[in-house]
Structure formats: C-alpha cells, structure tokens
Design brief:
The complex is a heterodimer. A two-stranded antiparallel sheet of chain A has the order 1-2. In chain A, helix 3 runs parallel beside helix 26 and helix 10 crosses helix 14. By secondary structure, chain A is mainly alpha-helical. In chain B, strands 1, 5, 6, 7, 8, 9, 10, 11 and 12 form a nine-stranded mixed β-sheet that branches. The longest helix of chain B is centred in the middle third of the chain and has 25 residues. Chain B starts with a helix and ends in a 17-residue tail after the last helix. Classes of the chains: A mainly alpha, B alpha/beta. The interface between A and B is large, with 96 and 81 residues.
C-alpha cells in the first residue's frame, strides 16, 4: 500500500484541484489527516465511525474503540482473517433440520441475514458480500426460486466466502451455483437443435457480460467510456451473446446421495436443484462447436463443458473493463455515488495487479477502495457532492448497531419479516437482475442537472420517503428496551437507550448530541441539525431523559444528514 | 446525398420555438419552455378530461404467443416455434374489421381481452418496436440504417421505450421521458390550480414520466400515509427541518424528496378521502397456494384500482389531464414459458378488465386510454423451454376512445427468411414507438406538429404520424 499511496497522493492533488478552488487548503487537509506521513490511524472517534459506516453494517461504540486503538489497515487485516459467518448452517439449525437436501423457507434466510448484519464479527466480509449481491444479483422473486431458502442461502454463502477471493473464483462459483443457474436459466441449457429450431438459451450469456463482468461499452481504466468518433464502443454484439450462450450449455444439478439419479435431468428433472453443490456438466448437452467471443477470442471446437466454461470465464475476467466496471460499482456501494475517475482508476489498477501479480484480488480491491484518500477525506475535499444515500436496509442496521440492539428470538417479528413493504428493499429480493436500483440512476432536477447520480434514491419514491421516516418512529418510540413492542413480540430488535439516558443526566444535552453525532453521522452533523435537536431537547423537561434521548435519536435518524453517508 | 429528415424537423422546431418565445430562451437553453410553447399553440378548450395509462410489461412479453395465427399460417407458426406452440384449438378467435392479413387468435389465458376486442374497445398493434427510422431486412443486414442503442438489453430498451432518445453514456444533459415531456407541455394549462403532478406512478420511479418541469409522484397502491410519530412535537420538528436546505447535493435531494412527499401525500389523502368507493370489484389478494395468475392480477389490479380512484378524484385534484404508469413484472420467460406466460397473461387480462369496468362505472371510459408496452418482443425460436430477447412485438391498446376490434400495423410472415425478420431471426418492427406514442398524444390534445416532434424525437422519420387507432 505504501507504493500505491504515493501514486494515490499525486492523484489526490489532481482530484482536490478539480473539486475545490483552494489547493493550499486541501494540502493542509491532507497533511492534517496524515496521508503524507503514511499513517492510517483515525484522527477522531467520528472519523473511525465514518470508516465503519463504509466498511460495516454500522459503527458500534465498541467497534469505534477497537478501531481508534488500531488503524484502518490493521483493522482490515483482522477482519479479513476472521472466519466467514455463513447462512445455510445457521438456517438449518434455526429450522431444526439436518438433511442437507431439506427445504429451508426463505424467511430463514432473511433471518440469517439480519442476525449477521446486526451481530456477525466478520462485518467487512458481510458488507462486501451484500454489495456483491447487488451486482451479481439473484432474487427470490425470480424463476422458480420462490421460497427456496436453501438455494438462496447457498448463494449468499458463495458471496460471503468469495468476498476477498479472486474475481475469477467468484465468477465461477456464481456461474455454477444452482440459484444463479435457475435465476438466469443456464441450468439445463442445452446445445442448439437446428432440426427442431431450438437455440441455446441466451439469458445468462447476456447478463453475465452486461452486468457481472464487462458491461455494454468499452471503458477506460478510469471507468469513463472509450469514445470513437464521439460515440461509445460496444464490448460485444449479438453474435457474441449467441456464442457465449453455447458455452454455457450442458449444466444441470448435482445428484446427491439419496436422490433418484436414474433419469437424465435434461429430459425429466428427477431431483431437486436446490443444493449447496455446484452444477455439474452433462456432456451430451454441451455444444462442442467453435465459439467466437469478443475481441477476437475464439474457443476452438471439440472442448467439453468444463474447459469451455473455464476459457470463457478466463476471457471475461481478463477483459480490461472488469476492473473499472466492478470497481466503480463497489465504490458506489461502499463509499460514494460519484467517485472521481482518478479514484476509479486507482482501484482498477489494484484490480489489475494487487502488488503481488494477482489480478482480481477482491480483498485488495476492497482495501484500496476503503483506504483511498478520496474515501478518507473526500467529504472535506468535495463536501457538496461526496457520499451516498444510505440504502434503507443500511439505515436500519446502523441504528440497531449504534444502540446495541438485542432480541429474545432470532425469528423476525412481522414488520421486519416483511421489511420490503416499508423499505422497498430486502436481501436477495430485487425485482430483477438489474438490482433494486441502477448504478446510473440520476434523480431528475438538481442532481440530473449537475450530472450526478444517486442510485439509492431510485427506491425512495414519495411513499417510501414517508415510510422510512415512520419506521424510525416505530423503532425509537416503541421498539426500545422497556417499550411496548418489546412485550409484543420476542423477535423485536430492541434499541438500548438506557446508558444514553444515564449519560445525558450526567453530561448534559450538548455532550449527548455530540456523541450521537459521532456515532450516527461520523461527526459530520450540520449546525442546523445541531440547533434543531438542541432546541427540541430544551423544550422537554430535563427529568424526562427517555423523551430527550428519543427525540434526539429520532430527529437525527430522520434527518437528511443521516439519510446520506458521507 | 441522403436526406436527413431530422435536420428539417429541427430547423422547423427552432424557428417556431424562437418565434413563440419572442426573444426568450431558446429551447435548448431552457427545456422548461415546452409549457410556454403550449400556451402559444395548444390552448385548451372546454372542460374535457383525458387520461393515459401505461401498463409496462417488464421483462419483454412474448408477443408471438399473444396474437397467434389460427388459419393456414398456423402450421408455419407451429413449425418455427417448436416447444412454445399454443394448441390451435385453444386460441380465442378474433375477427378484426377490415383486416386483410391472416386469421388470428388471442392467447387462451385472456378471455376478457378477447371480449373487449369483440366489443370494439381493444385494438391490437402488430409488429411494434424501437426504431429510429424504418428499416428493411436488407438495410438491417448491411447496417445502412441507424438503430436504437443496445436493442436486446432490458434496461436500455426500457429506457428507450420510455425516453425515445439516443443518449451517449457520456451525455451530461438530464434525460426525460415522453410522458414527462407530454406533461411539460400540458400540465400548467390543463391542470391550473393543481398542486399534485399529473404524472402519477403506481410503480415507483420511472423514466417515462420524467419531464424537464414536471416530475412524477409515486403513489402507493395501499394506504396513503402521513408522517406519524408518537411525539407530535418531534414530528413537527422533523417536518420543519425539511425546509432547511442542505449543503450536500445528495442530502438536499433526499430532503426535497421527503418534503415533497409529505405535501403530496396530504393532497392525495384529502382527494382520495372525498371519493365514493368504487363498486367495481378488482382482483382480490391471493390466498395461500393460489395460482400465480391470482398474484399477478392482484399486483397489477391494485395499481389500476388506485389509478381509477385518482381518476375519480380528478376534480378535487384539479386534473383534467393525467398520465399513469403501472407495471407487471415476470415476462422474461427464458425458462418454463409455457407454464409461466399463461399465468402472467391471465393476471394481466383480469386486472385490465376490472379497470375497464371501473372507467365505465365512473363514466369516463371514452376519456381513459390504457396502452400496453414492453421493452422488447421475444425470439420466435425456442431455446428449449423458453424464448430469448428480441425486438418487434405485438401489443394492444384499450378504452372507449379506441377504434377497437381492429389490428393496426402488420402480422409477420413467419416463413424462414421472411422479409419481416432480420437475418438472425428478430421480428422487424413496422410501427415505431414514436408513432404509437404520438397517436396517443394527439388524442390527448397535442396537435402541434413541432410539439409532437419534440416529444417524439424520431417521429419525423415515419410517414404516418397518426396510426389511426384512436377516435377523433
């Protein structure tokens, strides 16, 4: 990282020059934040919280303590070294089944996700897996995946396991997962049958290129499109889709012990395609003709399913678009909606080579995203545009983690079980393979006029803006320890406000607000919000510490300040 | 030198708009001027009411099995579509007026729509699709005619259907949809006194209803909520704070979104609270274990029910023009098409039939036109048990103002190497989305050719600006 950072620092000067008029001031900022000295220690508890908002499902006071005593680099090392918290084993235990083929209802997956987001130690891995689930999308709302918790839980576990693996590994595991196989119909995709006018299924071939790897148009290393004569250059055409469709032929599910394996799964589907096991090839259905891919890459005739697949995935993973295409989206999911091209280029360079000659090292990419100067001080260099709207789910998990949520039963209470009703979002529950929102969504008006995107706002139309605010009311005024909801259902995630009340009583309102600012806003609270909270608290009798804490949390958690992570 | 019809249209437009604005902003400097243009040319008369309802079938509905040959062409259909063939006897016969093409039937899952066709309330559009200008098989093969970008990509084609613009990914100017541009043109004049946008989305954020001036509002198909808080003083403080601009552009956008939502939802609650309940039954919530069709009927029916209620509330909303956007998802039938598509179409048919009945109950059936859209058609050939992304498609339009019981456009010759398909097997559109939209926009009250050219930027390239499927 030392070598990379000196280059990054130079690039940062270019960025800061663009982003603000006063280079001298920016230089001071950079010096003050220690990037010239190579220190990666958070300058304050607020800075630590800010980092944890990008890298986890939300800061806790304990996590802030740990990070302040360490540094960003060591924190990442420690996180990467933690064993992965997986979903399927948990789901089986919660459902009380041991048979590896037993059905698992989808609500168990949702439960597993919420438990892990709120409390798993491997927060960085979980957070990155969630980001990947919004790029390499499968959804319960698709192609016969309805209520299939086993297939979807197993898919989630692939993302968790591969969060810091190579991109090539991730792409293969995703491609061969039964959930993806069914979602984008590569499962039982067979070679063309010209006599019967049957073509290979193009679904996976098209989306794996468009969404999971290289995108529609050729990119510069900084993520901006290559232009030829003023227009973009397509990465592939219809003939490539058809050729790649033939690559992805001949795969069906693994037949496990105890299942009836007597019939050909391409003719009659005799066993469940809902296991943790990767799909396996059935050569009779694989197309062995030559396949011409993009950029002159030709897969020769006569290869079996596995070799064709390996060659095609190699070609995708080696394509120069992947670094900027994937890197930009991961930056958008973790740090900021409108990264500078230079930031994208720095991340793409790490994708191309992690410093040890490895291409597509996702752990190194995540590290580069989080340690980049733009991630660390972009909010000061470009305060008017830096940051991202928090995804609804991440608003909630941050609230839970900030207030040490506890619960008596892991089983979600009805409102959280149907969380998409109020959030327009729920894990592995997108309406289509295009995710809950598009990375290029630009709300009409001021943002579109300024050429800025705010992807997450695509799922916050008017009705959800109101629901999101009302959700905070429910959590803060009813779902706290000692509140009515706690008695109503053992699955309610209860916020703990007790020690904040104690603290308020001893330290006073200004100190309370400062500490909430640190925890929820990374110390970035606007003066207007501070004034609002102070005025409101002053109107509540000092003895009513519960109402004071509730009002402070409510006003912060419903504010535009909290709605955006910076 | 080849004639570029666009150039003429643009010159004509610039000339007219500059004249109309009399020294004001040029159109390209101030897109907001569409409303001003309308004041000059399209002054509304009377107190008529009209609504357009877009029902977008997400995923790309397979039109080859929506309208199917049922005469001698059936054998060819069955041969080309092996594995995806509907039984000939199952097709619901249609008897289109003045139709010279082959005999056709409707998908058997849509008896309600077949009835409406028979009643003259539903018209079919054959071979519609995204085009910049007419294209033949030969022109497509030799690449001599420009085509819309990324023809087979879901999101790009949803965008093109809705905004009709060729946009470079490097283009920094804000995009708009044709429903939004339509609203830019008519909202201020037709809906004087309205505080709520005339572009009402029952399906969230969308490109179609995004204008330069007018934005859509997402209307919940369930409860119309207000801010609630156990501590009313906390809620009041929260709401008051939304008046404070934020320095960060994203935070400020969030603030504006929430502020506008609260005001709009108060307006909605008032307006919807003042209407009589609809007597027309809409598809009920599906019971556990019910066929998927029940779920689809309910999903779309709930949106259309709310649309009907908003139509009923038009007077208190001060809306004489409304545009609705609804969606039904699940049409990307690469897999299990013969099991899934019938459920989808059955749900679609039931929901639309209920909505049609509701417009009659409200006495506005000649004033409300529902049009079906989908990002693309699907391949004629099978991939084993489904179909893949393609291009031209068959769609339909519904309402008392429609010249129904007819087919507009054409049904393709299904023979191999037919001139109606590209060399690689995609149905060539014979009707452009621009023509489809412009026919609806004319009915909606836009008559000025320049305004139509602005809303439908490719219209000038097609001889027929009005397909004739709407009554005058």
């Amino acid at each position: 990282m030392r070598i990379a950072r000196s280059g990054a620092l130079a690039a940062l000067f270019a960025f800061s020059t663009l982003a603000s008029a006063g280079t001298a001031i920016d230089y001071d900022l950079i010096r003050r934040d220690g990037f010239d000295a190579g220190s990666l220690q958070p300058a304050s508890r607020g800075e630590a919280a800010r980092f944890l908002t990008q890298a986890t499902f939300g800061p806790t006071e304990a996590a802030i303590d740990d990070l302040v005593a360490s540094d960003y680099g060591r924190w990442i090392d420690a996180q990467v070294a933690l064993p992965a918290t997986t979903a399927v084993a948990y789901m089986r235990s919660a459902e009380g089944v041991t048979d590896p083929l037993a059905h698992l209802p989808f609500h168990r997956y949702r439960q597993a996700w919420f438990v892990a987001a709120a409390s798993a130690p491997d927060q960085l891995r979980q957070r990155v897996a969630f980001a990947l689930s919004e790029i390499l999308v499968v959804s319960e709302r698709g192609n016969a995946l309805g209520d299939d918790g086993l297939a979807l839980g197993a898919y989630h576990d692939i993302l968790v396991r591969d969060a810091f693996a190579t991109y090539r590994q991730l792409l293969e595991d995703v491609t061969l997962s039964p959930a993806m196989g069914r979602y984008l119909s590569m499962y039982r995709n067979r070679k063309p049958d010209p006599a019967n006018n049957i073509q290979a299924d193009e679904n996976y071939a098209r989306e794996v290129m468009q969404l999971f790897s290289i995108g529609l148009v050729k990119l510069q290393p900084d993520g901006t499109p290559v232009l030829a004569g003023g227009t973009t250059v397509p990465t592939y055409d219809g003939s490539v889709v058809r050729a790649l469709a033939r690559v992805f032929t001949g795969w069906a599910c693994h037949c496990a012990a105890g299942q009836d394996c007597s019939t050909d799964p391409f003719v009659v589907e005799p066993f469940t395609c809902s296991t943790e096991h990767a799909m396996v090839p059935y050569e009779a259905y694989h197309d062995r003709d030559e396949k011409r891919l993009f950029d002159g890459i030709v897969l020769g005739a006569g290869h079996d399913a596995r070799s064709d697949l390996a060659a095609a995935l190699d070609a995708l993973a080696q394509h120069p678009n992947v670094g900027p295409f994937l890197g930009r989206q991961l930056i958008q999911r973790l740090v900021t909606s409108n990264p500078s091209p230079a930031y994208v280029a720095r991340v793409a360079a790490v994708f191309a080579d992690d410093g040890h000659g490895v291409r597509g090292n996702l752990g190194a990419v995540v590290r580069a995203i989080l340690l980049d100067p733009e991630a660390r001080i972009g909010h000061r260099l470009a305060p008017a545009t830096f940051g991202k709207v928090r995804e609804p789910l991440l608003r909630l998990t941050a609230l839970w983690r900030a207030f040490d949520a506890t619960w008596r039963s892991d089983v979600l209470f009805p409102d959280d079980r149907e969380i998409h009703e109020s959030f327009n979002q729920s894990p592995l529950y997108s309406l289509s393979v295009f995710n809950f929102f598009s990375p290029r969504h630009s709300p009409p008006g001021a943002l579109a006029g300024a050429g800025l995107v705010a992807p997450e706002l695509q799922i916050v139309p008017a009705n959800y803006a109101i629901r999101l605010a009302n959700d905070v009311d429910g959590r803060v005024f009813y779902g706290y320890a000692g509140g009515e909801l706690e008695e109503l259902d053992p699955g309610v995630r209860v916020l703990h406000l007790e020690r904040w009340r104690t603290w308020l009583a001893t330290a006073g309102t200004a100190a309370l607000v400062a500490r909430l600012d640190e925890l929820l806003l990374g110390g970035g609270m606007s003066p207007a919000l501070r004034q609002l909270v102070a005025a409101r608290l002053a109107a509540i009798p000092a003895a009513d510490t519960l109402a004071r804490v509730q009002n402070a949390v409510y006003l912060i958690a419903t504010s535009p300040d909290y709605a955006t992570q910076r | 030198m080849p004639h570029d019809p666009r150039r003429g249209a643009r010159r004509r437009f610039l000339r007219n708009s500059l004249a109309a604005l009399a020294g004001g902003y040029g159109f390209f400097g101030a897109p907001a001027s569409l409303a001003l243009l309308n004041r000059a040319w399209a002054a509304p008369a009377g107190d008529d009411y009209k609504a357009l309802v877009c029902v977008f079938l997400l995923g790309g509905n397979d039109g080859h099995n929506l309208v199917v040959p049922r005469g001698s062409e059936y054998a060819l259909y069955a041969q080309r579509r092996r594995g995806l063939t509907l039984p000939q006897a199952s097709l619901l016969p249609l008897s289109p007026q003045g139709w010279n093409g082959y005999a056709v039937g409707l998908h058997p899952a849509m008896p309600e729509m077949a009835n409406l066709f028979g009643e003259g309330r539903l018209a079919i559009l054959g071979s519609v699709g995204a085009l910049l200008q007419p294209v033949t098989r030969e022109e497509h093969q030799n690449g001599s005619v420009p085509l819309p970008p990324q023809l087979f990509s879901h999101n790009d084609q949803q965008d093109f259907w809705q905004n009709l613009a060729v946009r470079s990914s490097a283009d920094p100017t804000p995009a708009s949809g044709w429903g939004g541009r339509l609203a830019d043109l008519v909202h201020a004049d037709y809906n004087a006194g309205a505080t709520l946008s005339m572009n009402l989305s029952l399906a969230g954020t969308n490109a179609f209803q995004t204008g330069h001036d007018v934005q859509s509002i997402g209307v919940d198909s369930g409860e119309i909520r207000a801010i609630r808080c156990r501590d009313p003083d906390a809620a009041a403080a929260f709401e008051a704070f939304l008046a404070t601009p934020q320095a960060n552009a994203l935070a400020d956008e969030y603030r504006r979104t929430t502020l506008r939502a609260i005001g709009d939802y108060a307006t909605l609650a008032d307006a919807l609270g003042g209407i009589a309940p609809l007597a027309t039954p809409f598809p009920p919530a599906p019971v556990e274990g019910a066929p998927a069709a029940d779920r689809f009927a309910f999903a779309l029916g709930s949106q259309l029910r709310r649309a009907a209620e908003l139509i009923a509330a038009r007077t208190s909303l001060h809306h004489r023009r409304q545009v609705f956007f609804c969606t039904l998802g699940g049409f990307d039938t690469h897999d299990a098409q013969m099991a899934d598509q019938p459920q989808l179409l059955a749900g679609l048919s039931r929901a639309l039939a209920a909505f049609d009945a509701a417009t009659r109950e409200l006495g506005v059936d000649t004033s409300v036109t529902t049009f079906v859209a989908s990002e693309f058609g699907r391949s004629l050939t099978s991939n084993g048990d489904g179909s893949d992304h393609s291009w031209g498609n068959h769609l339909f339009v519904l309402g008392g103002g429609v010249r129904g019981g007819r087919i507009f456009g054409s049904m393709p010759d299904l023979a191999p190497a037919s001139a109606d398909f590209t060399w690689d097997g995609h149905l060539l559109p014979r009707i452009a989305v621009d023509q489809y939209g412009a026919t609806l926009a004319r009915w909606f009250g836009v008559s000025d050719a320049t305004a139509l050219d602005t809303i439908f930027p490719n219209l000038h390239a097609f001889a027929q600006g009005d397909l004739g499927f709407m009554q005058a």
